[in-house]
Design goal:
The complex is a heterodimer of chains A (213) and B (318).
Chain A: H1 2-19, H2 33-48, H3 55-77, H4 81-87, E1 104-111, E2 117-122, H5 132-135, H6 138-148, H7 153-170, E3 176-183, H8 189-193, E4 201-209
Helix pairs in contact in A: 2-3
Chain B: H1 3-14, E1 17-18, H2 21-44, H3 47-51, H4 68-71, H5 76-95, H6 99-114, H7 123-136, H8 146-152, E2 161-162, H9 164-185, H10 198-202, H11 214-217, H12 221-236, H13 239-249, H14 255-262, H15 265-283, H16 289-296, H17 303-317
Helix pairs in contact in B: 2-5, 2-7, 2-16, 5-6, 6-7, 7-9, 7-16, 9-12, 13-14, 13-15, 15-16
Amino acid sequence: MDKLRALFVLFHLVGITLLSLPTPGKAQDLDAPEAAALLDDLRALGARLGVERSAAEVKVIAVDVSERIREARAALLAPFNPYARLTGARQGWSMFWAINHRPARLVIELEGPEGAWTPLYVARSDTYDWRRRELDQERLRGVVNQYSHLRDRRSYRAFAAFIAQKALAEHPEATRARVLMEERPSQRPEALRAGKTPPSKRRWEELYSRETP
Amino acid sequence: MRPRALAEAWVAYWAQLAPPTPLALIRVALALCALGTLAHMIWSGVLLWVWGDLEFGGYRQNAPGHWWWSFVPHTEAGLWGTVTLAITAGVLVLVGLGGRASSLALLILTMALTSINPESGGGHDRLLTNALWLLVLSPASATLSLDCRLRTGAWSDTTPRPAWTRDLFLFQLVLVYVTTGVQKIGGGDWMPWGEFMALHYALQLPSWQRWDLSGVLGSVTPLTQLATVGTMLFELGAPLLWLGVWAERHPEGGRVVRLARRVHLRRGFVLAAVMFHVGIDALMNIGPFSWVSMAYLFAAFEHDELVAAWRRLRRQSN
């Protein structure tokens, strides 16, 4: 029994250690702003060390290296994946490793009978706080976080349609609802001290009327 | 050391026995985390939004991947039934009734529920299911439990039992800290060339910020930079927790062990971990990650220390 346990512990420790190794991104992941910034940093570091490469070359190298690592990782993990799936011992701890400098926040607006649009909900706002208890809940923050990175438009559309219909149902005077992600660059300390509000971009704007299914 | 002797030492190490008090406290803390997560979803009214389906209150068509849903239909009744069972299992784990079976039930039900909509989950779900699996492997309801009361007539039982999962809890926690720390090296904001501005920017992320700190952040840059450096040092230095625990358990060791004991390495690390997690939770809303992480920390202590701490607490409160 002791030997079996010791063997199991060895399997578990090796398995979770290998599973916790980060998965390199796919080619399309390298287009994300955080990844692009990292590649820029690497290019600058290379230049400082005397290895000059264009941005396109750095990207090709990164894609090639990450594909090789992904293949090797998949082969290494094959014996451990079923164990992790079955027991909940999945790993993956890439928390806040690359901070999004252009985060987008969820905004919901309603159109009144005179055609004027007013905000109903703005993420983390104390003024526009419709359904805040739900929309500030941690699991919904997780859902909206991927839209904050402008990822998964399909899921976003489903969510936007859902929340827009709820808003319209609770505001019979409204004629239409608009859901969007307001992208606003994070600010450096000096800009914050100056009280400047950076220009924002309205992204992923979706319009819903009561008729919209 | 020869391979055979190494293998024997390995087998002997994992066969050690100890009173299961630390494991029981982890059990109680994890049950509270699991129950708290479900209760907060119900109280906030998002349970159906997130885990429902387009046909019954959800925002999207969900196709839960866990085998549970092959037996229980993913309908409103099926979902609420599963949540009710999870709460029941959570209460059983909390009071320590049903032994490992209750932990297994809570693990399966947590995995089933969090599989419904993976985009609403995150590290806290994985950290919780990892811990629940280790609870299944632990004699965690052997003391401070109804099982103990029914078996012995007392609430606590200090009979030494297999203690190997304590080290697996610690290994898991250190693995989380180290791997996340290593990955942060690749994110420029955590490093000198990013001016250690990671926390300055992280606290501006609308997805996770608990408070709008834009009025303060501009004036406390040295503090956020220091906290960024501190986070990196803490995460990358997490293996020191093993050294600290080892030193406390094997005081007969050499110079390194003596030094670790002299500087109270283990207690220092645990204190840093608690400050780290309380700090995160005060400034950011990232779910129960901090609380689940802190539950793991009971594994760093021995039964006698926990009893002594409990007595001190009681004396102070009287």
